[in-house]
Amino acid sequence: MSEFDLIRTHFAALGSTREDVILGVGDDCALLTVPPGQQLAVSIDTLAAGVHFLPDCDPEALGHKCLAVGLSDLAAMGAAPAWATLALTLPADLPRTSPDWLAAFAHGFGQLALAHGVALVGGDTTRGPLSITVQVHGLIPVGAAVRRAGARAGDLVCVSGTLGDAGLALRALLAGEVPASDLRARLERPTPRVAVGLALRGLASAMIDCSDGLAADLGHILTASGVGAELDLAALPLTGAVAAAVAETGDWGLPLASGDDYELCFCLPAGYRERLAVIAARCGCPLTPIGRVLTGSGLVCRSPAGAVVALDAAGFDHFAAGAR
């Protein structure tokens, strides 16, 4: 299959059909219309084999995840997803470049794109070590973006969903074990919290998605906002499996620093606390206060007994020693 056959077969009509796409896949550039009064939110992520996913990862799950991580970025700013581009680097060896692998990858990508109204409008394919780069584009009313800079002392620190599930699944896989199916799904098929991000627009003072670990990602909010925060670890939303692992090992790094959660961490003025339950019910996703923003700087984590918990590492860093 030639490069152009590959594109026509698997990617030319992938995702939603949108009226704001004047010209999509198949020309030198896509032509897109940004509606009046809207700003364009753009984010790009690269997923590389052996770094962001295991080489034998299910291709349908991989197609899902490579789009989900970008949609999570849009969610963190309160942007509505619109378009995506895909750059796919494929190795020469089979079965990765076989039609079955590509069909499964495209299906995973396409189903998530359809679910969020995203049109695939362009990209590139080439030979090399397996990696996927996806750029996402979202629309947001002028001045309505939720940024990292905006948290104020007295705000609640909150998170969506649960923490540490993906990290627990990855630990099992790296140890040669088979993780529970629900944990593996959290690692390989994360749910971008787009509806939550849209619902928090105009309410949250600051927001970020948790891709590298809650402590590290919240740290970015604190630095950008010029504030500190204190977390109550007893309030962290944990599944039974993660709670059991923390109880057995005492390792709070699992929910705080293992990454790949793709939940939203946000700061919320305390007066809006009662709205959390309403938003959670409407979006079908738990929203949990886990701490508060303080004057000063830095992050303090307190154990259920009230002791300060020190972390060996705040989160994943590609260029730190020992990065996976």
Automatic annotation (TrEMBL):
Pathway annotation: Cofactor biosynthesis; thiamine diphosphate biosynthesis; thiamine diphosphate from thiamine phosphate: step 1/1
The UniProt record lists the keyword Ubl conjugation: no
Binding annotation for Mg(2+) 2: D45, D73
UniProt cross-references to Gene3D superfamilies, sorted A to Z: PurM-like C-terminal domain, PurM-like, N-terminal domain
Coiled coil (UniProt feature): none
Keywords assigned by UniProt, alphabetized: ATP-binding, Kinase, Magnesium, Metal-binding, Nucleotide-binding, Thiamine biosynthesis, Transferase
Keyword Thylakoid attributed: no
Highest taxon listed in the record's lineage: Bacteria
Catalytic reaction annotation: thiamine phosphate + ATP = thiamine diphosphate + ADP
Annotated Pfam families: AIRS (PF00586), AIRS_C (PF02769)
Domain PurM-like N-terminal: 26-139
Any one Gene Ontology molecular-function term assigned to this protein's record: ATP binding
Binding residue positions for Mg(2+) 5: D212
Other notes: Reaction mechanism of ThiL seems to utilize a direct, inline transfer of the gamma-phosphate of ATP to TMP rather than a phosphorylated enzyme intermediate.
Name assigned to this protein: Thiamine-monophosphate kinase
Lineage: Bacteria, Pseudomonadati, Pseudomonadota, Gammaproteobacteria, Chromatiales
Gene behind this protein: thiL
